[in-house]
Amino acid sequence: MENITNRVPAGIATGGQFAPTGHREPSIALVPAPIDDPDFDYEFEADRGPGLRKELEALPRISAKAAINAGKVADLLRDSYPEYWTGEDGAPQTRADAVKNLEQELRHLPRDQREHHIELVRFAVHEEMKHWADRGHVLNPEHRYELIIDTSDYADEDDLLDNGQEENRERWELLANTAAYYAVAADNSCSTHQGAAA
Length: 198
What we know:
The longest helix has 41 residues, at 157-197. This protein has five helices and two strands, in the order E-E-H-H-H-H-H. The chain is globular and about 60 Å long. A hairpin with a 2-residue loop joins strand 1 and strand 2 (17-18). A two-stranded antiparallel sheet has the order 1-2. By secondary structure, it is mainly alpha-helical. Helix 2 crosses helix 3 (95-105), helix 2 (64-78) crosses helix 5 and helix 4 (111-133) packs antiparallel against helix 5 (157-197).
């Protein structure tokens, strides 16, 4: 369970100490997860996308078995994308619910760490889903960093569409699963420390 520390006005004793000065509420507000719109807008992707891709690719590789297991955590987000589902019912949950479920999965992490891990997983899943939504996405990516494959490895445009598209999607899928793996590992570590401290 998370400990929530309330702000204390100046001069009020709490925990054996006095708050030396008054504290205002922070001026920033967190943006709620969208219901079913894209997670990241064009400007965010253009500004932050290359850095997030670099951070995702810098994560140490994991085994195929670990990726499959971690995929279950990334699936919490995938389940909120209608393009991932072929049935008429669409996605089984909204993006807001998916993010809440992922937050619950990583509940032992301090808030800033949890938000960072979730951003990495969300971004990689978002990039992966672009390939499900557009079967020709690899030919005309909105941002060049979205191409993880080397297009020169493919004989022609048809080969790129037939094979490169799937390969690029699979690489984003692996990045999402890898980010989920390290998020869960960090959460497990925090859970262990919290259990030892209790």
